[in-house]
UniProtKB/TrEMBL annotation, chain B:
Keyword Nucleus: no
Pfam families for the chain: ketoacyl-synt (PF00109), Ketoacyl-synt_C (PF02801)
Domain Ketosynthase family 3 (KS3) span(s) in chain numbering: 1-409
Family to which the UniProt record says this protein belongs: Belongs to the thiolase-like superfamily. Beta-ketoacyl-ACP synthases family.
Job of this protein: Involved in the type II fatty acid elongation cycle. Catalyzes the elongation of a wide range of acyl-ACP by the addition of two carbons from malonyl-ACP to an acyl acceptor. Can efficiently catalyze the conversion of palmitoleoyl-ACP (cis-hexadec-9-enoyl-ACP) to cis-vaccenoyl-ACP (cis-octadec-11-enoyl-ACP), an essential step in the thermal regulation of fatty acid composition.
Identification of the protein by name: 3-oxoacyl-[acyl-carrier-protein] synthase 2
Single GO biological process annotation from the record: fatty acid biosynthetic process
Annotated metabolic or biological route of this protein: Lipid metabolism; fatty acid biosynthesis
This protein's UniProt keywords: Acyltransferase, Fatty acid biosynthesis, Fatty acid metabolism, Lipid biosynthesis, Lipid metabolism, Transferase
Length: 79, 410
């Protein structure tokens, strides 16, 4: 797993208070990890802070799963 | 009923320590108060639950803690104890809709507002937590309690500074009388022992500063050496229930609210009027609504904050009781826990009910030399056994708001 993926997973575990094993790439923040809409806003902010990236609102709305987050951040970092 | 206070966690633990004459006041531990004029406060002791201390994760899941200011944490702790103690677990939708919540606070999420202000000031407004607003809002204690237990009745809150706790319980009892609910979870929660809170009340010259080296002596209602109040934090919550409803389900009934009175001073933003005539009128209204004579009251839990206003309240109580003044005991439990602001009235109403249950008047600590003589026994230093059938509890707030509540054993 990439360094980015590791860090994303860690942030998700910390912010949503879920077991690490549940944070699979396919896991949906809202459907599988018990987040509500405010949790996802906070999560996106935590990603922005941790990776020094800007995630505009329209992009944030499309980040529904752990993999979505990892892919988006990896793309930003590669650019 | 449920209490979390500087004396610790839990109703009976608080009560036994209070009656034993113990103090919950100490040097401020949650931050370094050295730069501020006042160094003492009553803070809820952290530690293991079984030792009567607070381990927050036993009460609020870690992931939810950051979504709430500390006053909400403390409100949830006391509400949980109160609801479990009441045994009220509404199963039907109708029963849930007939159960409401009215928990007040004087100040709300002050530390949360401070932290958020710093974030914005640093140009990081886009980093502000989405939980900032719901963490700081005063009515969110009521909100969280309703969500936790599924209570779908009236969801309300009270903000009347240091009278919030009594107003919440009094108003909630009126909602039951008016038929809006059968059961109301009511009380107050406060956690303003933070740099902004201490600095703000210090600036208003309201806090004690002369006993920084001897914290336990700082809260000394009616004593000639008192020099301001000591801030405390905590929460007091009761479950109020329509009498026949409670009887029908065989509920444990601690007591009955028989009187409630309110008034406004229309005088000054922080100082009470001459002779505390607003307090007199609130007590008078409570006595009238209870349909009793003042002489029926065996114990008064005073507002008694350890400020100059103590003697004005004393005058008002003397005026209310007249010739019966020598028959009544009056104490200020703020001498042991400090002034819990918006939670004070709720915690003190609970102490008043326990005073009736156990026929004991809790003490006024540090009352070494009363500044004014009075026929009223102010229960200096040690608790007193005495027959108490009816008790009155006073709370007054900035803005000139006064509330009195009268309770009776069942």
């Amino acid at each position: 797993m990439s360094e980015i993926a590791d860090k994303v997973k860690k942030i998700v575990v910390e912010h949503l208070g879920v077991e690490e094993s549940k944070v699979t790439p396919e896991a949906s923040f809202i459907d599988d990890l018990g987040a509500d809409s405010l949790d996802t806003v906070e999560l996106v902010m935590a990603f922005e802070e941790a990776f020094s990236v800007e995630i505009p609102e329209d992009a944030a709305e499309k980040i529904a799963t752990v993999k979505d987050a990892i892919d988006y951040i990896e793309k930003q970092k590669a650019a | 009923m449920g209490i979390v206070s500087p004396l610790g966690l839990g109703l009976e633990h608080n009560w036994s320590r209070l009656i034993a004459g113990e103090s919950g006041i100490g040097r401020i531990a949650s931050f370094d108060p050295s730069d501020l004029p006042a160094h003492v406060a009553g803070e809820v002791p952290a530690g293991p639950t079984e030792a009567g201390c607070l381990t927050l994760s036993d009460w609020v899941p870690v992931k939810d803690q950051k979504k709430m200011d500390r006053f909400i944490h403390l409100g949830l702790v006391a509400a949980t104890e109160a609801v479990e103690d009441s045994g009220w677990k509404p199963e039907s939708e109708e029963d849930r809709c007939r159960t409401g919540v009215m928990i007040g606070s004087g100040i709300g999420g002050l530390q949360t507002i401070y932290d958020a202000s710093v974030t914005v000031h640093e140009g990081r407004a886009r980093r502000l937590s989405p939980f900032f607003i719901p963490s700081a809002l005063i009515n969110l204690v009521s909100g969280h309690v309703s969500i936790k237990y599924g209570f779908k009745g009236p969801n309300h809150s009270v903000v009347t500074a240091c009278a919030s706790g009594v107003h919440a319980i009094g108003d909630a009892s009126r909602l039951i009388m008016l038929g809006d609910a059968d059961v109301m979870v009511a009380g107050g929660a406060e956690a303003a022992v933070c740099p902004l809170g201490i600095a703000g009340f210090s600036s208003a010259r309201a806090l004690s500063t002369a006993f920084n080296a001897e914290p336990e002596k700082a809260s000394r209602p009616w004593d000639r050496d008192r020099d301001g109040f000591v801030m405390g934090e905590g929460a007091g919550i009761v479950v109020l229930e329509e009498y026949e409803h409670a009887k029908a389900r065989g509920a444990k009934i601690y007591g009955e609210i028989i009187g409630y009175g309110m008034s406004g001073d229309a005088y000054h933003i922080t100082a009470p009027a001459e002779g505390h005539e607003g307090a007199y009128r609130a007590m008078q209204a409570a006595v009238r609504s209870a349909g009793i004579a003042p002489s029926d009251i065996g114990y008064v839990n005073a507002h008694g904050t350890s400020t100059m206003a103590d003697d004005l309240e004393l005058q008002a109580v003397e005026r209310l009781f007249g010739d019966a003044a020598s028959q009544v005991a009056m104490s200020s439990t703020k001498s042991a826990i400090g002034h819990l602001l918006g939670a004070a009235g709720a915690v003190e109403a609970i102490f008043s009910i326990l005073a009736i249950r156990d026929n004991v008047a809790p003490p006024t600590l540090n009352l070494d030399n009363p500044s004014t003589e009075s026929a009223i026994d102010r229960v200096a230093h040690e608790a007193q056994r005495r027959k108490i059938d009816i008790a009155l509890s006073n709370s007054f707030g900035f803005g000139g708001t006064n509330a009195s509540i009268i309770v009776r054993g069942v």
